[in-house]
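REQUEST ID: PR-0412
SUBMITTED BY: lab tech R.K.
PRIORITY: routine
TASK: structure prediction, single protein chain
INPUT:
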Amino acid sequence: MKPKISMITLGVAALERSLAFYRDGLGFEPNNYKDGDDCIMFRLDGTWLALYPRDSLAADCASAGRAHRFSGLHPGA
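STATUS: complete
OUTPUT:
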């Protein structure tokens, strides 16, 4: 089996500003996004990119015992 990263989650400081960068600046199309959602997903070629509020992602990592190493980036398998 070849190694593959299927999802990357970025913890961002400003969700709306990040949406504008990826959607309007880079041309990525959000997948099923509605104004007010707390997570934005982009389907890429073989990979998903998720934008998630940094504080919320850090809290999720803390509940998994990894807060001291949190960098704002979470590669998924």
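NOTES: The helical segments are 15-25, 54-63.
REVIEWED BY: pending
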